[in-house]
């Protein structure tokens, strides 16, 4: 099963449409990263992102080639390694804008919390797929699933990087929902989450509280956190139907958009490519998500199903939170848009996740 | 491993998740549709507000010249420090702290001027003026910190400069920021808050001519407020220059002669109505208003008991004293109540209606005719003239001759003076006119009062044979050239016999040139000067009060040549004492300057003669 990428069969089963959608997103991303960072040519954001996309494609093929059953078999070791890396990050990591979430990897800085999401996805998938057949999960099973997820989530939250920690949860939520929990338990989980909110308000840091208050009222402090969202909305709204044209967005080029090549890359798309570009980009993301859902439904076994749906949950969460943020539907969080935002960890994770989806798809027919 | 049936349940749940995702994506798509299609113009406008900054280019006011195109008022470059809050990388607190460390302004002062604008709801993109007319040091600080403080800029604002400070201050007026109250009046309908407008004087009267049209420059700025490029520029249109009829030399002569005393001088050309000089002292320095006047300076000006803001030449009314006698003589001759050959015995006093009225010469003038009565300014003679005329005819003739009514000069807030009548007294005092009151009026005392402008205007009308030309600083041709509404100079011709004019002008020639004439100090060798002195009692005299404030007001209204005069000068010195002593030398200096200029002998120096 290993190394069949060289065989003709690998390319015969290769999902070119899925791959094309990812490449399409990467091209839009590269163009807009180039456009939004022209003012800082020495930082080479474009070249670095291009390099990461290439690395991402390589990992995409590798991950797709290795049978996911083999990956799932070895996943406990990966999981342990992930915990160690997160502990190491917590101890020795680099602090960037308040969060100790980065490690140096040769010439590059890397955010392990991104990549480890995929480890958690496969770990949870294996756990859910190996449960004894029953209509609903037992309380202890739910607790175990939560434990698998919450250990790395806690370590990420301690960095503290609450935003990234939150992005782990959809994998758990989707898994629990699909595997089946009693409606009463489902409702209590949702209620519990709602009840935890006021308590967590008390332990939130002032800047986090500020972010949420600003989300509720962006004009509260237009020069502070609300400034970003206001400027993002101005950028997108002023893009109109067909946009101002690549390299012509005034909000982008004159620096009114904050963190425009990373978290707010979609604002640049909205401004320069307009509604057409927005729908095109969202369409490509939706295509990847729905193609994945289809793959989950045709998966050969529940392991594949849970892996793909974990990926779908995480993709979707990133899209809804990031895109919701740039139009002010969601609070400001540092959550990147898959395939679009600048950043090696994010791009690599997106491609690895896509590799897992293709992996499951290739093995959908029982040999 | 799950059973096949359970697998179906899982598939259904996956589909459910799919529907949730579709719904969520549709919500997002709706959000984009709403912003990019429905509200696109709103956001495009916001984006333009972000990147486009409009910098006003303030137009300079037109210059004001004298009749020989010498500059009386122009503009000097001046810089304001301004703050544009929109897109500022700092809070106003931070801005104030950083700015106050480098310029001569405390943090609290900076915050105060910012907060004042915030309270008035000035929009964020509108610049706030933090400090006006700043020093070179302040400009240098702002310019050298434009990267640290991109929200701060310096703005060029041309400011009014009056070359000779207090010279002709009241005629010129001053400029200042238009007030909210003024903006609601039709006069200032085309102005907006913050504009500089003329407040008084010619600056106000010809404001629409003097103001230019402000321009603007639209520049692209980045998020740090740095200029990245220019979109368009509409240059300002400078205001039109105003050439006045003022003769700077005559004006200076008059100003110098009045000096520190309170008083007024009006010199005009009776043939045309052109004002050659208008002095009111004490004066203020209109340059104080060019930059917002400080509260201390303003308070000093308005609480000064000598009232420096008042234009005494047109806004104050004074008893004309003996100057009025020539108008009484003309009225008596025209009404036929005064025989030109009449003579009166003056014992130094006279009695009318049970009261005794004194003459200034206690020992009396003896028997004298009209000519000598004017030359020596005999009261007793004119008590009889006035008594014979009666108040109705005095009112009728004096009004006809230009007294007690507005001349229509092109300055705001002209006073009408007052010629009393029976109707007037009934209206104001609800009382009957007493014949005894006419006696005082006959010598320019009592209720009668005139402005120095009226003295010059009416004297000009009388001596040119009853031709009253509307006094003015600006010729209508100038306004017509600029297609501004312009009224022709009004000319009134009232009926008067040439013989009457000859008698009074000859007598006034005698006042200056004959032995014993009261106006000898106005005499100029070779120039045919005539005139009449006046010494008007201030209320204190009756009350027996002493001191400078209760000294008589001093008048001299002179003209030359005595036939068909080219110039009339009315000089008035408050508490100056005898008109012959205080006011005549002032008129003399103006007339002599005029005469020397006419002969081409004027060397820039005004010859003064001793006041005593």
Q: Would you give an account of this structure?
A:
The complex is a heterodimer of chains A (367) and B (612). In chain A, a hairpin with a 2-residue loop joins strand 2 and strand 3 (108-110). Chain A has 15 helices and three strands. In chain A, strands 1-2-3 form a three-stranded antiparallel β-sheet. Chain A has 367 residues and is mostly helical. Chain A has one domain. Chain A has helices at 8-12, 16-36, 45-65, 68-92, 112-129, 139-157, 162-166, 169-179, 183-203, 206-216, 225-239, 250-253, 265-297, 302-326, 344-362; strands at residues 94-96, 99-105, 108-110. Chain B has 612 residues and is α+β, with helices and mostly antiparallel strands. Chain B folds into three domains: 4-38; 52-243, Penicillin-binding protein 2a (Domain 2), CATH 3.90.1310; 248-283 and 310-599, 3-Layer(aba) Sandwich (Beta-lactamase), CATH 3.40.710. In chain B, strands 14-13-23-22-21 form a five-stranded antiparallel β-sheet, sandwiched between helices. In chain B, helix 10 (248-258) runs antiparallel to helix 23 (584-599), helix 14 packs antiparallel against helix 21 (498-513) and helix 16 crosses helix 18. Chain B is elongated, with a radius of gyration of 35 Å. The relative contact order of chain B is 0.10. The mean pLDDT of chain B is 89. The interface between A and B is large, with 49 and 44 residues.
Indicate the multimeric state.
heterodimer
Which sequence of strands runs across the widest sheet of chain A? 1-2-3
Terminal residue distance of chain B: 131 Å
Question: What is the 3D shape of chain B?
Answer: elongated
Which series of helices and strands of chain A comes N to C?
HHHHEEEHHHHHHHHHHH
Mean residue pLDDT of chain A: 86
Largest interface: A-B, 49 and 44 residues
Mean pLDDT of chain B: 89
- Under the CATH scheme, the architecture of the largest domain in chain B is 3-Layer(aba) Sandwich
Largest sheet of chain A: 3 strands, antiparallel
Strand order of the largest sheet of chain B: 14-13-23-22-21
Unreliable segments of 5+ consecutive residues of chain B:
none
Query: How much of the residues of chain A is beta strand, in percent?
Result: under 5%
**Count of helical segments of chain A?**
15
> Biggest sheet of chain B, in brief?
5 strands, antiparallel
Helix content of chain A: 55-70%
Given the C-alpha coordinates, what overall shape of chain A results? globular
Corresponding CATH superfamily of the largest domain in chain B: DD-peptidase/beta-lactamase superfamily
